[in-house]
């Protein structure tokens, strides 16, 4: 749980990763001349603010790409949090002890840890630390087109509902990079949650990203491989076309996040709700 990796993309951009396997989350620290933005705060509770202070001495504000538990765990360490208001209920649920305990314990068991391990006081204590988050659900509202001027470096918010209704992407056009949270990922995008937007809305979000193609060349997701090329977005768009025209095959997968129906196209894998694949 304590795995932390820090690497830099350039002399004013860092990737702070925590966790392990496919669930490892990438948080991005982006520095301007006046202040810095940290995109997401991870799954594992760790001294993230302390880590940012070893890298830069400027004020750091947090932008959450969405409200899922693996992107918000260390929000409480920062004074200024921004999130899209459509993820308010998700943030509330995913900050709760019960929800975090259910998902984190399940992830550990999926790695083959036996049940008796959870009765050891040491393990219970460690798990408790990662599930009982200090209350910090206050945030400032993000909106589509919002600009953060960090000082000689401007970030723009693009509302990209799909994975969740409040999902956003962050465009750093000076460096030609797009930070997408869980909206485009190497191992697939989950769209089967009750709080996910419809496939049509997700496809509109992807088209919106495609419309600003000349402004970015690399995609930095919240998990797995980075950077991804812009062509990943095309594959996700075509994957939805395939579902809509009835030519997709799907595989049913039941996991601790619910039941999803997997559809693949090229590099893209979409996990859809049953209601979406009925058209197949
Ligand atoms: Zn997510
Ligand atoms: Zn995630």
UniProtKB/TrEMBL annotation:
It holds the Pfam family Lactamase_B. Residues 24-223 form the Metallo-beta-lactamase domain. This is Glyoxylase-like metal-dependent hydrolase (Beta-lactamase superfamily II). It comes from Breznakia pachnodae.
């Amino acid at each position: 749980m304590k795995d932390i990796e820090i690497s830099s993309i350039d002399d004013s951009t860092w990737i702070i990763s925590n966790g392990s396997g496919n669930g490892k989350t990438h948080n991005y620290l982006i520095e301007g001349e006046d202040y810095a933005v940290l995109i997401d705060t991870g799954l594992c509770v760790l001294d993230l603010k302390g880590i940012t202070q070893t890298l830069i001495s400027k004020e750091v504000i947090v932008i959450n790409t969405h409200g899922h538990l693996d992107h918000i765990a260390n929000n409480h360490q920062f004074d200024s949090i921004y999130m899209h208001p459509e993820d308010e209920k998700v943030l509330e649920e995913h900050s709760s002890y019960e929800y975090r305990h259910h998902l984190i314990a399940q992830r550990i068991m999926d790695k083959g840890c036996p049940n008796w391990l959870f009765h050891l006081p040491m393990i219970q204590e460690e798990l408790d630390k990662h599930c009982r988050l200090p209350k910090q659900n206050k945030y400032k509202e993000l909106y589509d087109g919002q600009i953060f001027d960090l000082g000689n470096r401007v970030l723009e918010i693009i509302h990209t509902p799909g994975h969740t209704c409040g999902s956003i992407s962050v465009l750093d056009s000076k460096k030609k990079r797009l930070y997408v949270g869980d909206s485009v990922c190497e191992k697939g995008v989950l769209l089967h949650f009750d709080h996910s937007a419809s496939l049509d809305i997700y496809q509109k979000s992807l088209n919106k990203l495609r419309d600003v193609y000349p402004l970015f060349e690399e995609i930095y997701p919240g998990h797995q491989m980075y950077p991804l090329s812009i062509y990943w977005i095309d594959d996700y768009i075509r994957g939805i076309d395939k579902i809509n025209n009835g030519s997709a095959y799907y595989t049913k997968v039941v996991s601790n996040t619910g039941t999803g129906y997997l559809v693949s196209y090229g590099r893209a894998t979409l996990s859809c709700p049953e209601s979406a694949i009925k058209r197949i």
